[in-house]
Amino acid sequence: MDAEIVTIGTEIALGQITNTNAQFLADQLSRVGIEIPWQTTTDDEPSRIVAATRHALGRSDLVFVCGGLGPTADDTTMAAVANALGTSLTVNDDHWQQIKQSLKPRFAEVPAENVRQAMYLKGGQWLPNPVGLALGAWYEGKQGVVVVLPGPPREFKAMVTQELMPRLQQHFGTGKAIFSRTLHFFGRPESPLMDDLATITPKWPQVVVTSYVQPLEIQVRLTIHNVDQATAKQQLDGLQEAIARLEPEAFFGAGDDISLAGVVVDLLEQRHLHITAAESLTAGMFQSTLCSIPGASTVFDGGFVTYAAEQKEKMVGVPSSVVTQHGVVSAETAQAMAEGCQKQVDSDIGVGLTGVAGPEALEDQPAGTVWLGLAIKGWPTQTKLLHLQAHNGRQSVREQAAQSALMMVYQALK
Amino acid sequence: MDAEIVTIGTEIALGQITNTNAQFLADQLSRVGIEIPWQTTTDDEPSRIVAATRHALGRSDLVFVCGGLGPTADDTTMAAVANALGTSLTVNDDHWQQIKQSLKPRFAEVPAENVRQAMYLKGGQWLPNPVGLALGAWYEGKQGVVVVLPGPPREFKAMVTQELMPRLQQHFGTGKAIFSRTLHFFGRPESPLMDDLATITPKWPQVVVTSYVQPLEIQVRLTIHNVDQATAKQQLDGLQEAIARLEPEAFFGAGDDISLAGVVVDLLEQRHLHITAAESLTAGMFQSTLCSIPGASTVFDGGFVTYAAEQKEKMVGVPSSVVTQHGVVSAETAQAMAEGCQKQVDSDIGVGLTGVAGPEALEDQPAGTVWLGLAIKGWPTQTKLLHLQAHNGRQSVREQAAQSALMMVYQALK
Question: Is B287 left (phi over 0), alpha (psi -120 to 50) or beta?
């Protein structure tokens, strides 16, 4: 079955904002085996919304029209879709009462035009909006199914996951036997990683393996069709284990919603360990990334941004002789930073990050050169040299450095 | 003149990556007055590339086909576009020699299929790729102009800005008399800000004012058409000054490529001032954001992440009595953090950030409650209470808090 996503919005057509809704929906649909060969975007002009909807219905069985459901005159999507389908609009009276109720505190009299947000396609069904006012719509016509969804990403995501996906699975039976699992990797480029995996995946011929390059990780999705749940679990578990054994340096977890920082915080919490850091080129990014995870306070008390050489000495006791002798970007400095912060905070683990963010070189070392130090109480301190790609700029070097340090901690804890 | 952007790529169609190229190009085009009512996305299937190109040519005068110019068999865009136009491909021999030269270190023999990247549309012109191997193409046919561009965002942006835009301005005279300027604001929601601006903008009737909501700022673009450069400058300067006077609390600069962190680092550098911070809920994000700016080392030596209460005392000397008496999230704690880090690092300016990132409340204060402290040598310490929107999650609260602290520093320096 072919689907098409039609996005409505002058702000997107003009390039003022990125179309993240289309990506989100396409990803959700491809996870349940619906193909989306076409996406179209147009502005708020009603005649173009009608044309886009008709054109989509001519080549696709399932059309999603997204955005343009606000209460004002330039929000014309629902009416234009009705026009394209040869139907009209109808009001959900209960919902209109609710809208008036919820807007009461803000208006002396709720504007009559807000009734637009209680309208849907006559002959079809309305879709509840879990977090906003505008209803969505579901319409089954002779040319195919048309679904109308709201534009604000928070409302869009909530309606897609809570209302649309269950309905699609019910209607098309798309959920009948598709199971998928996402594996996460960091520290290896995509093509050697996929070449390696190709040496074992043929042993699981039912499982489809696809890779996704993300800014700070490679995701590999395993998908299996037309089997029962027990078989799916057995197959996916088996392949996941084999991959984890094959890629111990790069694999860090499985799941739809995991991050390396989350995995590290969980591991630290399980082991009752505390971590700290002294950061130079990342200047707080490593610690800030850890603390993006709710509950980070159970494993992290605080740390240091030791940007200038004298602060490395003053804050965490890196001897100035180490810096003079070996340079700021050196194994010795990274080691002294890691050990120094660990002692200073009296933590179980101390991480030191020093390197060249760029754009200029430093101490004759090119941008992208980074030393990491990892001090764990009772163990010899490790150091690691990275040569990170610098052509995407300073911020990218710093992000890769922080992620590499998380990976080093993960490897040590595992 | 109507333009259409056709994006080619299975990864985009499947929702694996966001289509940032279309946004970038649409924004560039709308800045020079080219309208883009349509965008289409399809996968790598050649018949769909042909269909999308033909359909676009039927309704638009200027068609951009983006992506699918790699060296492998699934990169078929250039051939499909040739097919849609009824032409064929031709090789730029010099460029093919260069490709072989540059790939030599990686291959015993450069694969013959790489010649695809030296091909362009017969009867048209090739476009140089400033940072990659694949050529672009420019073709003027009877139905309109078709431009073919590479997919990787770094190559795409370089070819658009360095090759395409100058050529468009030359060909269509689009650069004839359009001048624009972007103003940046933080700390006020879009609609009251725009309501305010509407009280003065009618005095500059030639200037078109549009607003763009970004995650951590509101951008307002001023555009003026069909005037000479001197008039444009005079008008834009006049309106910018009036806006800066009207919105002293929210306006922080003008320019296409500026950020609040960059403005703050520049101001500190001009005044020869150094800054430091003690961060709780942001856990290093404020310092990391400052250091995203090249040259931050001239104004920043280092600072502290004082996440746990006892580290606030140990690292920057916040008396435990202050925390017990007033709470971690209080004016008094923010003040003591700001003053403490400023003294500890012997810096001119110290910033303290403490608050509730969420999702849970803390000390009976809801997520989004944040106190900032700002200690400047020789001045009384300021504190500021923020009630940030928490419904977009913990990370958004932390980002807003770091940006608010930058704004507080900017206001004080200005």
Answer: alpha
- One domain for residues B360 and B374: yes
Q: Which of A40, A304, A358 sits opposite B40 (nearest CB)?
A: A40
Question: Which residue type sits at A251?
Answer: F
Q: Do residues B362 and B384 share a domain?
A: yes
Q: What is the pLDDT of residue A169?
A: 83
φ, ψ dihedrals at B191, nearest 5°: -70, -45
Contacts of B67 in chain A (CB under 8 A): none
C-alpha A142/C-alpha A129 separation (Å) is: 26
Q: Are residues B271 and B296 in the same domain?
A: yes
Decide: residue B212, CB within 10 A, 0-12 exposed, 13-18 middle, 19+ buried. middle
Do you find a cis peptide bond into B294, omega within 30 degrees of 0?
no
The answer to whether the beta carbons of residues B50 and B18 sit under 8 Å apart is: no
Are the Cβ atoms of A17 and B213 closer than 8 angstroms? Answer: yes
Give the residue from B64, B23, B7 showing the smallest Cα distance to A15: B23
pLDDT score recorded for residue B55: 96
Residues A45 and A189 in one domain: no
CB atoms within 10 A of CB A385: 13
Domain boundary among B228, B254, B280: B254
Q: Is A288 in contact with B285 (Cβ distance < 8 A)?
A: yes
A280: left (phi over 0), alpha (psi -120 to 50) or beta: alpha
ipTM for the predicted complex comes to: 0.84
Last residue of a domain, which of A254, A274, A301?
A254
Band the pLDDT of A192: cuts 50, 70, 90. confident
Q: Do B41 and A45 touch (CB under 8 A)?
A: no
Residues A283 and B290: beta-carbon distance below 8 Å = yes
Among A305, A311, A362, which would you mutate to test the B interface (most chain B Cβ atoms within 10 Å of its Cβ)? A305
Same domain, A313 and A188: no
The CA-to-CA distance between both ends of chain A, in Å, stands at 43
Question: What pLDDT, on the 0 to 100 scale, is given for residue B35?
Answer: 86
Cα A323 to the chain's mean position, in Å?
A: 39
CATH number at residue A144: 3.40.980.10
For residue B175, the SS3 value is: coil
CA atoms B39, B42, B44, B47: torsion sign: negative
* Overall number of domains in chain B: 3
What's the gap in Å between the CA of B48 and the closest CA on chain A?
8
Q: Which tokens go with A29?
A: 């649909």
Residue A175 is given by DSSP the state T
Cα separation of B337 and B397, whole Å? 20
How many residues appear in chain B?
A: 414
The candidate with the shortest Cα–Cα distance to A311, out of A278, A289, A334, A287, is: A278
Q: Are B24 and B5 in contact (CB under 8 A)?
A: no
The identity of residue A117, as a single letter, is: Q
Do A37 and B43 meet the contact criterion of CB atoms below 8 Å apart?
yes
Residue B260's nearest CA partner among B290, B294, B299 is: B290
Residue whose token pair is 């808090």: B401
CA distance B160 to B128: 10
How confident is the model over A251-264, as pLDDT tens digits? 999 998 899 999 99
Q: Is residue B352 within 8 Å of B334, Cβ to Cβ?
A: yes
User: Is the same domain home to A12 and A50?
Assistant: yes
Tell which residue, A150, A146, A145, A112, has the closest CA to residue A134.
Answer: A150
B304 in the same domain as B408: yes
A284–B294 CB contact, under 8 Å: no
Indicate the residue of A13, A282, A345 with minimum beta-carbon distance to B37: A13
Confidence of residue B177 (pLDDT cuts 50, 70, 90): low
Which CATH number belongs to the domain containing residue A397 in this structure? 3.90.950.20
Same domain, B111 and B250: no
Q: In which domain, by residue range, is A342 found?
A: 260-413
What is each CA distance from B264 to A352, A362, B165, B186, in whole angstroms?
27, 24, 32, 13
